[in-house]
Every structure is written in structure tokens, then in C-alpha cells.
């Protein structure tokens, strides 16, 4: 049976992609953030997952304000990164896992979720930047991709509880998959930031640290705030924490934190990286 080995939670700021493209990883401004990936690289080398299931939000590449699904799941044989105007274009393609994607889709529909299914899909910086951070270089990515997009842009947004329950349904689907793949879960985006309006540049360190402190041991603590509360606390883009909440829901075993890094600011964003190990409850 498939095994969910752990979760990687990280910011997906486009500026990180530009820093990678310009080889600025050791620049004093960027180094504290990039250093947070050293334990992630070591863990990935040891675990060698086969598939990455990525909870993220699309930034207008596939969906715009006139057509914005609450949840969308990719079921394509391959995905490519397309630049949305940030001046970064990563060439490496992403091999899909369509059989697993369809199994997840069927199982979450049976759990009374209604995702849009995408047999053709491009991915933006919300997927590309975390992949480049986790697997730097030019070699083909060692994992297949199942992308799951969550609406964090057009109101009404899904509630934190709904996203958490979606993640749990995805976790159950992966566990029931008949293959023998090792799966890593990603939650990308955040933490607190707002890019426009009177509160542009808003960062809430207290809320960020509340999320980081509770992500592994008590994820349901993050459900106490509704979506509008999160917008108030973390900023209009800080609501991307919904992706983290969904990803945490998919980790259904005995979860423990292996590494955590928090750095403020990166391009007006509170940037963070968390690595969680997920093990079967019987073996924990």
C-alpha cells in the first residue's frame, strides 16, 4: 500500500524564484531562508518519495476571477511551469501521476467534495518555487506530481475546517491506493502577508508563530479562526495558510516536527519552512 512519509510546508514567493534564477542563495538577504532547506534536502535524500501531492493556490494561470473553482485537482500526464510575468521560467517538466490523481478524485467525490478535474493544467510559482527549493539543479524531478488547487483569491473562500477535511479525505485516498508509492505532501504559500491596499506589507509574527507552534501537535487549533478572521490576522494573501491546513489534514499518522525555519521578511512576506514526519500510528 502507498505510504505518506511526511509533509513539507513552505512559502512560494515569486521573489524566491528570481533569487534561485540569479544564484542569490548565499546573499545575506536570502541566506537565512535558503538555509532552512538543508534538513529538507537531507530528509528527501533519505526518504526518496515517489509522488508529491501539492496543495497550493493558482494565481490566475489556470483560473481567473470569472471562473474560480473552490477546489481543483490535476489529472494530467505532465505539467509545465508557465511564467505569470515575474520573469522566471523554469524549464523542467513535472511528470504527472494520473492514475493516482483519478483515484484521489474518485475518493474525495465519494466523500462529498466536488473538485474540478483538470486533465490539462499548467503550474505557476506556487508549485514551481517549492520544487526548485526542494530539488535544486537541472536533473529531472525525482517525484511525480498531483496538484490540488484551493481558492484563496475569490470570495467566498472555503473555511479552514473544509480545507482540513479535504486534506483528510485526500490522505485516506492515498492510504487506500493499491500502489506501493511513497508520497510526500506539500502545503505552499504564506505565511502572513498583504500585497495591496492600506495594509500592504502587513505581517503578523504572533499569528505566524501560533500556526508554526500548532501545525504538528494540534492542527485543529488553526480551525478556530474562520476565513475572514485569517484575512484580518494574516493579510489578504496570508489566507494561503488554507493550503497548509489542507496538507496537514492529509498527514494522518503519528506526526512530529523534524525542522522549522521562520524568516521575516522575504519580499514583504513572512517566509517559513516546516518539515513534518508522518508515521503509522501502530509503529510510532
Task: Please name the defining characteristics of this protein.
32% helix, 284 residues, alpha/beta, globular, Protocatechuate 4,5-dioxygenase, Chain B, eight-stranded mixed beta sheet, three-stranded mixed beta sheet, 9 helices
Task: Sum this structure up briefly.
Pfam families: LigB. This protein is an alpha/beta fold and 284 residues long.
Could you explain the architecture of this structure?
The chain is α/β, with parallel strands linked by helices. The chain has one domain (3-189, 239-263, 271-279): LigB-like (Protocatechuate 4,5-dioxygenase, Chain B). 32% of the residues lie in helices and 24% in strands. The chain has nine helices and eleven strands. It has helices at 14-21, 31-35, 38-47, 98-110, 125-134, 160-176, 205-214, 227-234, 241-250, and strands at residues 3-10, 51-56, 71-74, 78-81, 94-95, 116-118, 122-123, 144-150, 182-188, 254-266, 269-279. An eight-stranded mixed sheet has the order 6-3-8-2-9-1-11-10, with helices on both faces. A hairpin with a 2-residue loop joins β10 and β11. α1 (14-21) packs across α5 (125-134), α4 crosses α6 (160-176) and α6 (160-176) runs parallel beside α9 (241-250). It is globular, with a radius of gyration of 17 Å. The model has no long low-confidence stretch (mean pLDDT 93).
- Determine and state the CATH class: Alpha Beta
Tally of individual domains: 1
Distance between the termini: 18 Å
Give the helix proportion (percent range). Answer: 25-40%
Question: Proportion of β residues?
Answer: 15-25%
- What sequence of helices (H) and strands (E) makes up the elements? EHHHEEEEHEEHEHEHHHEE
Structural class: alpha/beta
Low-confidence blocks of residues = none
Round the Cα radius of gyration to an integer and report it: 17 Å
Main sheet characteristics:
8 strands, mixed
Instruction: Label the CATH architecture.
Output: 3-Layer(aba) Sandwich
Q: Remind me, CATH topology?
A: Protocatechuate 4,5-dioxygenase, Chain B
Question: Overall pLDDT, averaged?
Answer: 93
Strand order of the largest sheet: 6-3-8-2-9-1-11-10
The DSSP helix count reads 9
Corresponding CATH superfamily: LigB-like
Number of beta strands? 11
Amino acid at each position: 500500500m502507498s505510504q505518506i512519509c511526511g509533509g513539507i510546508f513552505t512559502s512560494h514567493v515569486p521573489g524566491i524564484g528570481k533569487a534561485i534564477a540569479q544564484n542569490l542563495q548565499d546573499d545575506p538577504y536570502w541566506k537565512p531562508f535558503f538555509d532552512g532547506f538543508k534538513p529538507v534536502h537531507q530528509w528527501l535524500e533519505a526518504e526518496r518519495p515517489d509522488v508529491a501531492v501539492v496543495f497550493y493556490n493558482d494565481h490566475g494561470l489556470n483560473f481567473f476571477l470569472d471562473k474560480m473553482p473552490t477546489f481543483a485537482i490535476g489529472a494530467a500526464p505532465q505539467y509545465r511551469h508557465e511564467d505569470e510575468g515575474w520573469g522566471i521560467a523554469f524549464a523542467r517538466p513535472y511528470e504527472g501521476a494520473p492514475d493516482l490523481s483519478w483515484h484521489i478524485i474518485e475518493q474525495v467525490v465519494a466523500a462529498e467534495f466536488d473538485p474540478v478535474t483538470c486533465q490539462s493544467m499548467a503550474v505557476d510559482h506556487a508549485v514551481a518555487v517549492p520544487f526548485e527549493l526542494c530539488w535544486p539543479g537541472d536533473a529531472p524531478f525525482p517525484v511525480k506530481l498531483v496538484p490540488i488547487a484551493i481558492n484563496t483569491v475569490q470570495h467566498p473562500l472555503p473555511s479552514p475546517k473544509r480545507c482540513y477535511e479535504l486534506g483528510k479525505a485526500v490522505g485516506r485516498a492515498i492510504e487506500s491506493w493499491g500502489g506501493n508509492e511513497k508520497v510526500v505532501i506539500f502545503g505552499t504559500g504564506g505565511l502572513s502577508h498583504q500585497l495591496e491596499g492600506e495594509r500592504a506589507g502587513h505581517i503578523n509574527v504572533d499569528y505566524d508563530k501560533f500556526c508554526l507552534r500548532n501545525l504538528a501537535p494540534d492542527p485543529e487549533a488553526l480551525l478556530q479562526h474562520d476565513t475572514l478572521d485569517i484575512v484580518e490576522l494574516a493579510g489578504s494573501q496570508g489566507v494561503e495558510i488554507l493550503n497548509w491546513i489542507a496538507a496537514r489534514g492529509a498527514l494522518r499518522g503519528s506526526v512530529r516536527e523534524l525542522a522549522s525555519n521562520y524568516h521575516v521578511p522575504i519580499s514583504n512576506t513572512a517566509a517559513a519552512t516546516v518539515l513534518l514526519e508522518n508515521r503509522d500510528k501502530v509503529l510510532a
